[in-house]
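A protein record in our archive is deliberately plain, so that people and models can read it alike. The record that follows is passed on verbatim for readers who wish to inspect the format.
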Amino acid sequence: MAHTQPTDPAFGRPGWSVMTTDRISDTKWGCITGGAVFGVAVRMYSLGIQRRRLTAWPMGHVLHGVVFGYVGYWVWRYDMRMKEILAEGYANQRRKNAEREKRIEEQMAKRITAGLAALAEAESPDPGNK
């Protein structure tokens, strides 16, 4: 399955959107499961380094899985909060940009009308020179 980059709505060009969740690691259960698997792998690696049986005290495997899964949950929560903050920041930036563009357009409209008025005044015949 080919992976394509979505269009970023914040900037209107191809790129990664702030709220894109197209990977299993971006889901809550993906983070918890990934943390638990990593915890069990750490446990087995440490037993291997110590040259102990990999089945020594199986409750240790369970505890490592639970603890690292809990850490994975908090990593997911942190990631979601950061995405919310970034989305809020992008929305504020888009709002400020729209306000700035509107203010610039108003200033340009004033300058154009003032310039047209000055041009019309300069081209009109002076009634005092007859």
